[in-house]
Model the fold of this input.
Amino acid sequence: MKLQLALDRLTQEKCFALIQETAEVVDIVEIGTGVIKEYGMAIVRDIHKQFPDKSLFVDMKTCDAGRHEAYQAFEAGASYVTAMAFAADQTIQDMLLVAKEFEGEIVIDLLNCSDPARVRALYELGARHFCLHIGKDMQSKGDTSVLSHIDLVDGLDGVTIYIAGGINLERAHYLDATRIDVAIVGSGITANNTPRIEAQAIRSVLMSKS
Ligand SMILES: O=C(CO)[C@H](O)[C@H](O)COP(=O)(O)O
Done:
């Protein structure tokens, strides 16, 4: 199972410092939606320039203007770009076409999606990367159910499954490596006083399962 570092609600300086510190330990670096809203595609370009060997997951959370937003992110250096599951089929199809052009991937964010039929429909459109996700606001209400959302992607062949929302060292132990391919960890690393050591510890747990 891969480890993805999510950089959310952080300054540019802090983002660069965290990547510098954890680059050797994490497989994918996520540039979070709030960071993108603050700094735009410039920060994606700058991170790509400084860390050209790191795969970048650009959390656009696109729900419309799919072609335009996918181009923005892939041209800036993204390997992965997110789209919301509730977006129109046309938006998803447009994004998948752009991803093909750049040899990148569109990751469907399943935030607030509880309908396996919608997930199956997205699969039929060509989506192969899906992210099970409990957002910050529901986490703050005590929702820790993300591990049980795996049913949403039951029966889909050849997919890559990500999990996000409150994953930390403790919860990493409960991830099912036969179903989940990428563990996304934000504050579980970024809010830790020793982020590299914490990332290393989480990575060890994930490696022991893979
Ligand atoms: O996409 C996100 C927020 O929308 C976060 O990247 C994701 O939830 C991981 O952060 P954390 O581990 O702090 O919950």
Summary: Residues 195-209 form the longest helix (15 residues). The radius of gyration is 16 Å. The chain has ten helices and eight strands. Strands lie at 2-7, 28-31, 55-62, 80-84, 105-109, 129-133, 160-164, 182-185.
